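Lab notebook, bench 4. We co-purified these components, and the gel suggests they stay together. Before we commit to crystallization screens, I want a quick structural picture of the whole thing.
Request: model the full complex, all chains together.
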Amino acid sequence: MFLRMGKRVGITLFSIAAVIVITFALTRILPGDTAEYFAGPAATKEAIQEVRVKLGLDKPKYQQFIRYVQDLSRGDFGQSLTTGQPVIRDLTARLPASAELTLAGLIVSILIAIPLGVLAAVKEGSFIDHISRVVATAGVSLPVFFTGLLLSYFFYFKLGWAPSPLGRLDIIYSAPPQVTGFYLIDSLIAGDLEVFWAALKQLILPAATLAIFSLAPITRMTRASMLAVLSSDFVRTARASGLSTRKVILTYAFRNALLPVITTLGMVFSFLLGANVLVEKVFAWPGIGSYAVEALIASDFAPVQGFVLVMAVMYVLLNLMIDLLYGVIDPRVRMAA
Amino acid sequence: MNSHSRITAVSTVARAPKVAVAVKPAEAASAAQTSGLSAVLRQTKYVISENPITGFAFALFLLFAIAAIFGPWIVPYDPLATNTAIQLQPPSWAHWFGTDQYGRDLFSRVVVATRLDMTIAITSVALVFVLGGISGIAAGYFGGWIDIVVSRLADMIMAFPLFVLAMGIVAALGNTVTNIVIATAIINFPLYARIARAEANVRREAGFVMAARLSGNSEWRILFSQILPNVMPIMVVQMSLTMGYAVLNAAGLSFIGLGVRPPTPEWGIMVADGAGYIVSGEWWVALFPGLTLMLAVFCFNLLGDGLRDIVDPQRRT
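Here is the predicted assembly.
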């Protein structure tokens, strides 16, 4: 158990080190003048020189790296040229918006995908199985930004059910006092149901877009692992012992089938965090993804670097969480070490 | 083994002679009959009859290939010609997909864009196929420090959410189409390297490798003449499976404004152009490029699944 934990922590540390090295390498080792990147496209010669000295770019590479790590540990991600703010402040201000959207998308997706996958496996070859196959194949083929546009066309323009697909809250409402940064939770804490509904309405379309996107891999994996478990010996034994189908499927098969699905979640997160950027752009969602896109277009490099770093660290930590969860659910994993 | 050689012959139409020769030492018996154009056609027919959906995907693929190759000559209008008199016209007989905000014909733009999108996807996949394939095979076959370097490199890349890494790479390397190709190749590297490594690893002590070693072949020669041809089929399947993802990734990058510059027709950027008109009801500007993009990805995924089912039925889900 401790060996496993130690190994897992080792992997996490390696990943974080990799993230730091790569984000450093992206700017310093690649061709081009780093000072020019950070000074932005409109900078004069003097401004570039100033940035060079300020960032220590006139020093040797290893010293630059040490300084980079020191800056990061102090939470100094540089300054954004477009907003004029420290990048870390912009990112922390916008992170809850992205997190709320991604989590909402993931939860909706899991709530649909897992029952669908289980049903498809239990009734293999039936109508529902075919539906799940179509969903799985169509889901991976849909460009996430295109799905978002289609949804807003139908539900906003055609049917008028959804509010205008711009941002987290209609301008007539003001944001609830910040506690968690999640509008849905904050508005409930403040006891303001009207804002809650308004925020929920804004969230539905972008979250649905993300959900449709991540539906495919989860459904596919649930179906496959459920099929494998259903044909195993212990399920046969449970059936032969006369247990009800419900008990066999839910207690015996489902719990075991869940394990590979949790492993897939790591991959799903990789896609989801990327897709998040596109969805934020489509729905003008004020998260870190749209922040990075705006900075990219303005050739403002520090925010992009900070964004890549934050996303990668979050992804590494999510993977760690998934692995630990795996150990909690499956005692065999704990015993094996 | 038989189906392995079949698939090799079919899926590498473009380089059939090279592969056919390379396959011989390992699978001499079956490979001997699969040479020349007629054999390739026969194998294609076999694969299609196995699975009609794969056949459909293949037909769709041909359509895209035609659009990519002959696109600029078969479209009815100049994809760049603006005409302010016919701005934002809905689809009609004259303009099948309607016109955009500058009065450009969307059908012509969508068709002409095929070449650029396909080129980006194919070059990036080919690049990672060569780099990831060779380094993965070397890692799996030799082990030791090559293995450590390649595996750690793959781990490092996998530490990132892939699309985010691609954004960072394009931002750092510069905002050009070439860099989109490079970024797409880099984020796919771990997939290819890992598969090639695993496949090469299980074969390093195989009978035919031992035999080749005993008869005095050098290690690198064994790698290229024995291991590579055997790892090829699974790699080709991987290639067609990732092709759809490569198209999506490239279109996603250009959707957020990276790489391709307007007015160059490209599906991602065309959807981005039309995004603003969706909320005012001009659906066609974004719909047709988006639909085409979706169809292309769908086509590659079906093709990949079909090939996979034949080469490696165990992995069918």
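Residues 1-34 of chain B have pLDDT under 50 and may be disordered. Worth comparing against the SEC data before the next meeting. Chain B touches chain A through 49 residues (CB under 8 Å).
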